[in-house]
Amino acid sequence: MDLAGSLIAISLLLLIAIGVAALFLAGRDSRSSNEDDPPPPS
After folding, report:
1. Rg, the chain, Cα only
2. Among residues 11, 13, 14, 36, which one has the fewest Cβ atoms lying within 10 Å of its Cβ?
3. Region 6-31 average pLDDT
4. How confident is the model at residue 14 (pLDDT cuts 50, 70, 90)?
5. Is 0.70 surpassed by the pTM of this model?
6. DSSP letter at 40?
7. What CA–CA distances, in Å, run from 23 to 18, 32, 34, 41?
8. pLDDT(24) > 80
9. How many CB atoms lie within 10 A of CB 39?
10. How far apart are CA 36 and CA 28, in angstroms?
11. What keywords are assigned to this protein (predicted)?
């Protein structure tokens, strides 16, 4: 039973790490794409 608990804990930590990395990459990509946009017409 201890092995199952350890596997569940490791899986949850991996999912959290992947989620944080995805949010970081998505935020960085959106900022860099916004920099490439032409300025709004004034």
Report:
1. 19
2. 36
3. 88
4. very high
5. no
6. P
7. 9, 14, 17, 30
8. yes
9. 5
10. 13
11. Membrane, Transmembrane, Transmembrane helix
